[in-house]
Each structure stands twice: as C-alpha cells, then as structure tokens.
C-alpha cells in the first residue's frame, strides 16, 4: 500500500500547480507598470502631427531631435542641476531630522510618545494645499520666498513625519546595548546618536532619504508656487516650457519626461537592493 504523501509534499505540489498562475500575474503586473513608459517612449519619437493621428502606435519615423529640442527649450541642464541641489539637501535634512526625532521617541524619556506618534500620523494625512496661503505670507515676511532654501525647508517639514515613523519602527527592533555601553564610557547623547545610532539604522536612513528625495524630485505644486526665478527652478517645472497658449506640444513633453525619468531610474537601479531591504526591515506595525 503506497504511503500517504507528507504535508510538505502536498504543499510543494500545490506550489507547482499555482506557479503558472503566479507567472501570469507577474507578467500582467509588469505590463501594467511598463505600459505607460513604453507609450511615453513612442510619443517622444513622434512629431505632433503623427502623435495626434497615431497616439498609441509605433512611430513611423523616429524624431530623435525631440530630445535635443526639449533639452534646449526647457533649459533642462540648469533644471537638473537645481533639482540635484534640492533633492540632496532634502534627503540629508530629512534623514537628520527624522533620525533625531525617532531616537528621541524610542530611547529618551519623552512625555506622551503615543500622542506624538498620533500627531505624526495626522500630519502625514493632511494635504499641503491647506497651508499654502499662510506659508506664502510667512515666507514673504521671512525673506524665504523665491529661494531654494525656503522650498527645502517646506520639504523637510512635510517629508520628515513619515520618515520619523519609518525610522522609529526600525529603531525599536535594535537593542540598546551598544548605546548603554557608550554611555558607560562617558559618551554624551549627541555622540551616541551620531557615532552609534546612525550607523546602526543606516539601511532605514537610506530608505527614508530615497523616498524623500524621490518625492522632492517629482514635486510640482510647491516648486511652482514658491520659486519664480528661472535660474532656480527644478527640472519638474520644465514641462511648463512646452505650453503655448492653449496648446501643448505633447511630443516634447514626453521627451522631457523621459529625460527627467532617467536620473531617478538610475539611482533606484543602483540602490534597489538596499532600498528594498531597508523597507522590508522597517515594520510599520511596531
């Protein structure tokens, strides 16, 4: 009489049967994610006339000069340089602010940490449009309007709450033994934070910095509201350059969009393993 299959064998058989369905689902999700990018590439290689008659199909004759025209017309070299400054300063500032806040919430004797966590959750859910009018008034009085530093300050304020919650969850899982040993050797809180805590939570800091940097790179409303100097505008405002009256050259918009996509895509591809591992190790349920 044949032996009954073990539970592990039955589970393996079920996995083998469901594997084709899993692959099919992954292919569908990949097509869903890559479809808009493929359409954007096709649009960037068409003339405006061809784009209006054949918006979804392959270009009949690739118009590679769209990229040159978009680069020159939108002054994208200056925009990319400005975006690099804004994104890097935003990412570094968010990491320092959220890292210090998470350290204080988890390790120090802060009153009502639960109320602070609830406050951060509420703040992250509020739309920034509620604060545009008072921010414009305050920034004008403080001399921060139409400056990159003024825009970076706003980015620090709106991106730090989520990063604080992210790093708090990461810091909870790290035992405080190293910090206690450093304090026994006479180290102060700043020394413990910069030399002990920050290296330990480096994957979480990298994740928070990448998320904040990506949001700052793609952000449009605050940049177009608080910056007016054409030499200080980030690259996200470059798409405005292709609007003439009530018409928009969508071929040049697609070409500029692809140019904007390449830097962040390269950064993510280089750092994707650290990004995913950092996100996976920060349990937001803690």
UniProtKB/TrEMBL annotation:
Entry-linked InterPro entries: MetI-like, MetI-like_sf
Localization per Swiss-Prot or TrEMBL: Cell membrane
Chain segments annotated as transmembrane: 21-45, 84-106, 118-139, 151-171, 192-217, 251-271
Top-level division of the source organism's lineage: Bacteria
ABC transmembrane type-1 domain ranges (all copies): 80-271
Pfam families given in the database record: BPD_transp_1
Main location: membrane
Record keywords, A-Z: Cell membrane, Membrane, Transmembrane, Transmembrane helix, Transport
Coiled-coil regions listed in the entry: none
Topological relation to the membrane, as annotated: Multi-pass membrane protein
Family statement drawn from the similarity comment of this UniProt entry: Belongs to the binding-protein-dependent transport system permease family.
Name the record gives this protein: Carbohydrate ABC transporter permease
């Amino acid at each position: 009489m044949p032996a009954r299959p073990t539970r592990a064998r039955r589970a393996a058989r079920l996995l083998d049967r469901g594997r084709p369905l899993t692959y099919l689902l992954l292919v569908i999700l990949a097509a869903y994610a890559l479809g808009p990018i493929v359409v954007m590439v096709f649009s960037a290689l068409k003339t405006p006339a061809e784009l209006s008659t054949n918006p979804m199909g392959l270009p009949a004759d690739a118009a590679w000069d769209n990229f040159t025209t978009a680069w020159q017309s939108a002054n994208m070299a200056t925009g990319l340089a400005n975006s690099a400054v804004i994104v890097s300063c935003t990412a570094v500032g968010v990491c320092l602010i959220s890292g210090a806040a998470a350290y204080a919430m988890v390790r120090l004797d802060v009153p009502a940490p639960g109320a602070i966590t609830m406050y951060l959750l509420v703040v992250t859910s509020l739309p920034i449009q509620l604060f545009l009018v008072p921010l414009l008034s305050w920034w004008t009085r403080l001399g921060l309007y139409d400056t990159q530093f003024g825009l970076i300050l706003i980015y620090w304020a709106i991106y730090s709450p989520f990063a604080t919650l992210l790093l708090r969850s990461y810091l909870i899982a790290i035992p405080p033994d190293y910090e206690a040993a450093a304090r026994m050797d006479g180290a102060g809180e700043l020394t413990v934070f910069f030399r002990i805590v920050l290296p330990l939570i480096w994957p979480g800091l990298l994740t928070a910095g990448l998320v904040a940097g990506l949001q700052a790179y793609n952000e449009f409303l605050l940049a177009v509201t608080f910056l007016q100097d054409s030499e200080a505008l980030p690259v996200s405002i470059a798409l405005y350059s292709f609007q003439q009256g009530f018409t928009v050259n969508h071929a040049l918009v697609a070409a500029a969009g692809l140019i904007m996509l390449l830097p962040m895509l390269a950064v993510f591809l280089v750092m994707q393993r650290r990004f995913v591992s950092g996100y996976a190790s920060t349990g937001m349920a803690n």
